[in-house]
Amino acid sequence: xxxxxxxxxxxxxxxxxxxxxxxxxxxxxxxxxxxxxxxxxxxxxxxxxxxxxxxxxxxxxxxxxxxxxxxxxxxxxxxxxxxxxxxxxxxxxxxxxxxxxxxxxxxxxxxxxxxxxxxxxxxxxxxxxxxxxxxxxxxxxxxxxxxxxxxxxxxxxxxxxxxxxxxxxxxxxxxxxxxxxxxxxxxxxxxxxxxxxxxxxxxxxxxxxxxxxxxxxxxxxxxxxxxxxxxxxxxxxxxxxxxxxx
Amino acid sequence: xxxxxxxxxxxxxxxxxxxxxxxxxxxxxxxxxxxxxxxxxxxxxxxxxxxxxxxxxxxxxxxxxxxxxxxxxxxxxxxxxxxxxxxxxxxxxxxxxxxxxxxxxxxxxxxxxxxxxxxxxxxxxxxxxxxxxxxxxxxxxxxxxxxxxxxxxxxxxxxxxxxxxxxxxxxxxxxxxxxxxxxxxxxxxxxxxxxxxxxxxxxxxxxxxxxxxxxxxxxxxxxxxxxxxxxxxxxxxxxxxxxxxx
Amino acid sequence: xxxxxxxxxxxxxxxxxxxxxxxxxxxxxxxxxxxxxxxxxxxxxxxxxxxxxxxxxxxxxxxxxxxxxxxxxxxxxxxxxxxxxxxxxxxxxxxxxxxxxxxxxxxxxxxxxxxxxxxxxxxxxxxxxxxxxxxxxxxxxxxxxxxxxxxxxxxxxxxxxxxxxxxxxxxxxxxxxxxxxxxxxxxxxxxxxxxxxxxxxxxxxxxxxxxxxxxxxxxxxxxxxxxxxxxxxxxxxxxxxxxxxx
Amino acid sequence: xxxxxxxxxxxxxxxxxxxxxxxxxxxxxxxxxxxxxxxxxxxxxxxxxxxxxxxxxxxxxxxxxxxxxxxxxxxxxxxxxxxxxxxxxxxxxxxxxxxxxxxxxxxxxxxxxxxxxxxxxxxxxxxxxxxxxxxxxxxxxxxxxxxxxxxxxxxxxxxxxxxxxxxxxxxxxxxxxxxxxxxxxxxxxxxxxxxxxxxxxxxxxxxxxxxxxxxxxxxxxxxxxxxxxxxxxxxxxxxxxxxxxx
Lengths: 246, 246, 246, 246
Known about the structure:
The structure is a homotetramer. Chain A is built from 7 helices and 9 strands, in the order βαβαβαβαβαββαβαβ. Chain A is α/β, with parallel strands linked by helices. Chain A has one domain (8-227): Rossmann fold. In chain A, helix 2 links the parallel strand 2 and strand 3 (59-63). In chain A, helix 1 runs parallel beside helix 2 and helix 4 (107-135) packs parallel to helix 5 (156-176). The termini of chain A are far apart. The interface between C and D is large, with 45 and 45 residues. Chains A, B, C, D: InterPro entries: NAD(P)-bd_dom_sf, Sc_DH/Rdtase_CS, SDR_fam. Chains A, B, C, D: Pfam families: adh_short.
């Protein structure tokens, strides 16, 4: 009979790739880890990663659909009831993004991506904030992308959503930082080394030109650990090979 | 019996204040002006302004609800059938914004403001773009605000929406500028001298600290008139008294 | 015997290209125009442009070396004594920029470009400001470039200078806007159609991909004319063909 | 008889406050630490901090005047000859900043701050880069401030310099990241808890409203340690109490 005093880290969008790396890194650091996604199969890799990284820690899968605010709220409530209040929320959902000219995108598609990327992030945030405010601490990390700073000819859907997410992240930070909640927007300004990118790039894929998800996850952990007198709100990451534009 | 060859300017969100000034300024410059809003009463001032500014021009009121993509599409279709293809679209809708802490805002409120500020802008854009692309010219102007660059403790709803609008404006510009469509995001980084601001500010209201809407509308007209070898995409405006932060 | 009440426009860096267009456009609008550059030959085209655009206006050439603060101060003092206090200052100097890797650039080169692009702009600003503040109006326009927002592998010298210029422009604006001085930073985010660019680009030069300097100058004039309740501080310009990054 | 294989960290501007914290944190992490400043007395605190944090490590004081490129170059050459090639350069110089209206600042003052904040940073960078490029790794960290993103009415001197520094940092990063050199611009968007701030703020000083320099230094160390597939170039820091504007 024992009471866990481990921090609880809830990862929404815990699939393969970055989701699994986040599970691994936060578990290895001693967190109990909850994985939320639409299917248990989708989070299987992340769950295994967390278990191997911290065999004595608890891992939990909870079904949740990021396109439905109610589903996220219920999922995070379930996490809290099973593991305790969430200390760290990572919103790492990536909707099915398709890049195409604005006129080939519909209003429904725009609404769908806003639901998943923006309203979902807000719903998850709302679900964990009250307990964080009550105890005066907590961390909320949003996974974002280049598109949060820059529109593009074929990226209207994605840019509109990621811009919105960035504005939301700033607002939540400004509202609750002084109450001890650390909010950050992590802008992955690059390709990640994940199956979908390997597939998209095909023969032109080069590992050196991508961010390794375990490396990315280390900075998420660092942001969580920053002492509160010196917090970052916007953090960008890219591989050393990237010739980026700001 | 004559055929108008005047440019057609459609203003979505053509109420009192900036809407009426835009109607006045574009009418005075020789445009036929279509005003779209939820009620004819709401656009009465704008319609009068347009008529007085250009008695020989045509003005048209069309009912449209910016929170419903289909309504905007139908409204703009009606404009085109009555006045001819839209040359200038001004999306000037302002939802009912309430400033409050994130936790006092609901997911439904976020969805509502995204529908009006972002999805509505996209619906209107989609409705006028094909004809613009066909003839290789057109202007699309989005009214925006400080909140497009900066979140705030009580402004999550508004910031999320205006950030999204900015990302959309960049994307539409990058997709279609080379085809002759000039897209701009006009950031009003200040209070406007409009009834609602006078009411909000009460005794502390000072005319000198606000932008006059006729003055603001002049820059909208200028952006429309910029020769295509030297276009602006993001334009900020504020009164000389404003001590702003970028 | 008559007293001129025409506005006085002083253009520092009034060579061929944009300098000549600015001279033409502000003269055509009714200004007396003073041209400052290192040699009369360098400003000959600008002077001719101003005279042709406004045969009844006054044009004046004054020798000044933008790399020497004292020379700029003396030159602008000379303008004021001959034409009257300067109403509009345009700082349009472009040092001899060479693009190369940081390690191939020297500290002396960095100091030189900072002297011309930044300290010179400040010296010219200081020279005209007191009279502007005394009468409560004036316009100061700084020509800038993409490099003001973005460093680049071969553009350290230019980016360091243009970033600095942008910070200066914001500071001057914030210090003196409320006293009636309109300050703007005009970011030319593109190639201009000027001899040096035609030469650099060689066979790949395409007029459609460049900003025409007369078109650019029209926006400088517009910024000057903006009513003071609705001023812009940062203005970007690029041709419709440009696929830019923000 | 032994050969040190410890990384060499050179801190330019190693006074009390952040300089001493950087010395402490990098020494504690196992670096040999070189402290460069105008007087040995100025670096005494930093030197003591480094020694206490890592009694078995080497610490070295080298006289250097950041306002003179040659002095910095000589100083860093001396470091390399005594400790070995520099692995980590931290440019943490802060000139004597005085906040006042633009017209009360002189061109000489602008040149002076540009020399210290910008040309000095470039001189130091040039001094350490060749060895970093030769071995394909290295870290260069520039201490910066809010003023790098935003001009202010009384901060022209500081903003012009810090904007310039930011443009330089981007350029160096883009030129040499792919060769293994990690360059970052650390924006301290807040007051630090250092003697000069305590003095400036007087009775209104509140420790909770400032960043603790040891906490800030931890993020410098983290940026240095980021794996190269996921590097940050611009990092902002502020205390949880800060109500900032971006």
